[in-house]
Amino acid sequence: MKEGIILTVIGGGSSYTPELVEGILKNAEEFPVRTLRLMDIDKTKLDIVGSLVGRMIEKESLPITLELTNDRKEALEDADFIVTQIRVGGIRARIRDEKIPLEFNVIGQETTGAGGFANALRTIPVMLDIAKDIETLSPDAWLINFTNPSGIVTEALLNYTRVKTIGLCNVPIGFLNQFANMLDAKVEDILLDYVGLNHLSWVRKVFLKGKDVTDIVIDKIIKNLPGKEAESIEILGMIPNGYLHYYYNREEVLANLKSSQKTRGEVVLEVEEQLMKKYQDKNLKEKPPELSQRGGAHYSDAAVSLMKSIYLDTRDIQIVNTTNNGAIVDLPNNAVVEVPCVISGNGATPLSCGNLEPTIKGLIQTVKCYEQLTIESSITGDRKKAKQALLVHPLIGTPEIIDSLLERIIEENREFLTNFFRGE
Length: 424
Description:
alpha/beta
């Protein structure tokens, strides 16, 4: 790779961008970005975020050229690394994703269930379109995908394009930091036996300097949890990521969502508006503490660590989303999984996870089938495939609502789901 890195951020007007830039600036010696391109279709947000990023770079006196553009092709040309962090339809589409399923008495959430399904239908065609540009303009670039639902999007990119793609989520690095704090240890001394899919994963074992400390960690965790959640962990003997409560505590979660005055998306919209006002302060030259309210903790650490390890060919272990290739015996080879991988100049090589425990195997296999059906339906506009995806998903699976739920989702997202309206 040539000296000095061209890094492109698609969705550069996101409120997350200062978090990412903070990591880039902290790692400037080992990961020498010389051109940072922020691309966004929203010029207003791009200008606001771009101005703050410019002040952050100036404060550190680093030789980084900042480019702001609304032209995707211009942003992608000759890039070495590309980070995608887009939200097709914006936060208001997310709010619809959260509210519509509740009308059918099923969970509405950004990345899973019917809400995640709607998000995927909108997002996959756009990401595949971006990939076409990458294949032409920067075929050797690495695409680091944060766009949700990250696992599904990453699988679509890896199976339907030639782009070198790795999917990322902040859940694994969040676990590492949580356990390090819990054990008064360094993050680099902790190794996780971690298995699953994006937002559907479990920590099977925790090792501290090679010693199995799983029982210690579980004991510490359950002391701070309500009875039902603690009981689930004790039964499993594993630590589920936070998104598993949608499955393990389904009825309680649904009741809470239905009784809440605001969806998470509505809260996020308010936080976004406050952040954009904050970002316009000419005296602000660093990531503000208020950004923590937006979620996505450790996003910067995960992204920069991954890109740096590829750039330096470090061959360290990180937990990312990549093609299974036999890592999980119970899933297809072309499925995308979230597992520990060796990260090198050649990308991510998954470590063997063996067979899945019966306690988690069925759920993982079922959700993977849902994901694959969702990808097929988003690309083809096949309503039958879409209905199959909804029927298979454990959080939906009620035949009498599927027709109405699907049509409502499609109609509400009509401008983005042109594949479903061919021939009209």
